[in-house]
Write a structure and sequence with these properties.
By secondary structure, the protein is of the alpha+beta class. 37% of the residues lie in helices and 48% in strands. It has one domain. The model has no long low-confidence stretch (mean pLDDT 93). The longest helix is centred in the last third of the chain and has 25 residues.
Length: 67
């Protein structure tokens, strides 16, 4: 198992089992986890990562309006 912090709030954990390699993209804020998505291809990784980043950017913009 290997792990990489891809963004302040996004971590990737690579895993494998008898069926092959896969990974988990974890969208978090400190100890709070918003979502964990299993990905099993580069295409799926890219799609999920981009979606999480878009959600993160929207959340950050909304938070800026409430301050």
């Amino acid at each position: 198992m290997k792990s990489a912090q891809l963004h302040e709030n996004i971590r990737y954990v690579s895993l494998n089992d008898p069926d092959g390699d896969f990974g988990l993209l974890i969208h978090h804020d400190g100890d709070y986890i918003y979502a964990v998505v299993e990905v099993d291809s580069k295409e799926m990784f890219t799609e999920v990562f981009n979606e999480i980043m878009a959600l993160r950017n929207t959340r950050d913009k909304l938070n800026a309006l409430t301050v």
